[in-house]
Amino acid sequence: QKEVEQDPGPLSVPEGAIVSLNCTYSNSAFQYFMWYRQYSRKGPELLMYTYSSGNKEDGRFTAQVDKSSKYISLFIRDSQPSDSATYLCAMKGGRDDKIIFGKGTRLHILP
Amino acid sequence: EADIYQTPRYLVIGTGKKITLECSQTMGHDKMYWYQQDPGMELHLIHYSYGVNSTEKGDLSSESTVSRIRTEHFPLTLESARPSHTSQYLCASSDRLKAYTDTQYFGPGTRLTVL
């Protein structure tokens, strides 16, 4: 079993819809959870990070962590065509300093 | 936008050639990383460095080598390129003093094709 599982998509939704992106993980030592956005031909850029369980909101983006279920989510409200990208979840924790990335979900927002 | 640069952006080269992928950052970050990314696959850490004269191998076995002689510079070298090295290579850096959040800033990547 991989440490981080993420559906690669692609996920296509109409403009204005609420998007839900998810990852599951197996390592209960993970404490820090991140979402990166990667546009085509670019490097990933950090969107949000959260520590432990709970929600964090930043504009149209909400990150949610449920450690009991080992499940994290990123919600995008009022989705825009400019949100079309690949979204990678990432996490770290415990004694290992390294960040573990999911495969990424390709998202297409249809105008 | 993060101040981390990679050159070249695209490289097509023949088998057996020696290549060096350049990565530089102007943020003064101590920690730097090289990842390999194939389409639809996870980023795999191949090398990292905690500072000058520090280099470590990552989780993914790689035939490449790295050096860290200056804080801002972290080049990756392939002594003899092979078609199996065809991939996207991403460089990243982070601030050691913010180790808990470890926000990694990525460069734009080098897309390498070995014929």
Please provide the ordered H/E string of secondary-structure elements of chain A.
EEEEEEEEEEE
Helix content of chain B: under 10%
Cα-atom Rg of chain B, whole angstroms?
Answer: 13 Å
Rounded to the nearest angstrom, the distance between the terminal CA atoms of chain B is 33 Å
The total count of helices of chain A amounts to: 0
- What's the N-to-C terminus distance of chain A? 37 Å
Sheet with the most strands, sense and barrel status of chain B: 7 strands, mixed
H and E string of chain B: EEEEEEEEEEE
Kindly state the number of beta strands of chain A: 11
Largest sheet of chain A: 6 strands, mixed
Largest interface: A-B, 23 and 25 residues
Shape of chain A: globular
Shape of chain B: globular
User: Which quaternary structure do these chains form?
Assistant: heterodimer
Strand content of chain B: over 45%
Q: What is the mean predicted local confidence, pLDDT of chain B?
A: 90
User: What is the CA-based Rg of chain A, rounded?
Assistant: 13 Å
Provide a count of the helices of chain B: 0
Strand fraction of chain A? over 45%
- Helical amount among residues of chain A, as a percent range? under 10%
How many strands appear in the DSSP assignment of chain B? 11
Main features:
heterodimer, A: 111 residues, mainly beta, 6-stranded mixed β-sheet, 5-stranded antiparallel β-sheet, 0% helix, B: 115 residues, 7-stranded mixed β-sheet, 4-stranded antiparallel β-sheet, 11 strands, globular
Topology of helices and strands:
The complex is a heterodimer of chains A (about 110) and B (about 120).
Chain A: E1 4-5, E2 11-14, E3 19-25, E4 30-38, E5 45-51, E6 54-58, E7 61-66, E8 71-76, E9 85-93, E10 96-101, E11 105-110
Parallel strand pairs in A: 2-11
Antiparallel strand pairs in A: 1-3, 3-8, 4-5, 4-9, 6-7, 7-8, 9-10, 9-11
Chain B: E1 4-7, E2 10-13, E3 19-25, E4 31-37, E5 43-51, E6 54-57, E7 65-66, E8 76-78, E9 87-94, E10 105-106, E11 110-114
